[in-house]
């Protein structure tokens, strides 16, 4: 699965040229109300806009149905084209709308957040949440093209930049020690768009390489779950407690927990635990509000992760060292409890 990925600051021209080359029977933009207000006026693209409510809570059947309905009303055909402009919610749900409308129409993703540029917009995972379960319904369907512009990131908050950068650090850890060290050496919130672009391109290439080899996550692609087994548990627990945290922050904490498990299971160097903790603290990733009373819920959440092969095991991607991931490792509840204790000691 190879995708056309274009890096540009001539966003409108690139999109209209791409769309023109694809010669569609009708082109539609899918976006959310926030992006429609803050970004679309800057682009002035000549296509009708399908707008959905923003946020992960609206990545659901209602949002999806509203996109399908607008396409039907507008007489879209199998030759129509969707242009999904937004964060991960829009590229996931717009991508799934395209993958299923008339059994599949073409689509272009234009990520407006660093997080979606480095992760959701690339690699062909599309879907919606269902019955309270994240991404429960979906399809592997790569965008025909992804248009990435760092110019779109100028209005992101520091929190949104940090959140996306955590996924870049994950890619660095999967790819090589040098890439990882390069990412750790930056003062994230001071990086200008020109300096960010080569780091971002390198990071997206890591994901592309993995996805080309294993598009449907039979093996190698599971490496991309580094930090996510523990990270999703932190994210879900924070949401239940009514204090949602950004996805990337939870992944960053999850990476530290999984580095600790890697240290216990694979001899991942202890000095690296300290290095990564220092990076998290120096860049303001904060710390989850977790006490030992939260462990059983966190472990239960990890047990329900859909990436587990059976309910009795909790599956992780671990690391022998930076640049050397090991997929399909399981850890016991006792190991995870010990890792969470060490995590809290490091982060305090
Ligand atoms: N976000 C992980 C993946 O695309 O496989």
Q: Can you characterise this structure?
A:
The longest helix is centred in the middle third of the chain and has 21 residues, at about 195-215. Helix 7 runs antiparallel to helix 8 (about 175-185) and helix 7 packs parallel to helix 11. The protein has about 350 residues and is α/β, with parallel strands linked by helices. The model has no long low-confidence stretch (mean pLDDT about 95). The strands form 3 sheets. The protein has a 6-stranded parallel beta sheet with strand order 1-8-5-4-2-3, sandwiched between helices. Strands 6-7 form a two-stranded antiparallel sheet. It has 14 helices and 10 strands. The chain has helices at about 10-20, 35-40, 40-45, 60-75, 90-100, 115-120, 160-175, 175-185, 195-215, 230-240, 245-265, 270-285, 295-305, 335-345, and strands at about 5, 25-30, 50, 80-85, 105-110, 125-130, 135-140, 145-150, 315-320, 325-330. The protein is globular, with a radius of gyration of 20 Å. The chain binds glycine. The site of glycine (GLY) has 5 residues, from loops. Glycine binds near residues 119 and 224.
Bound molecules: glycine
Structural class: alpha/beta
Q: Count of helical segments?
A: 14
Secondary-structure element sequence? Answer: EHEHHEHEHEHEEEHHHHHHHEEH
Number of strands: 10
Provide the gyration radius in Å.
20 Å
Give me a quick take on this structure.
By secondary structure, the chain is an alpha/beta fold.
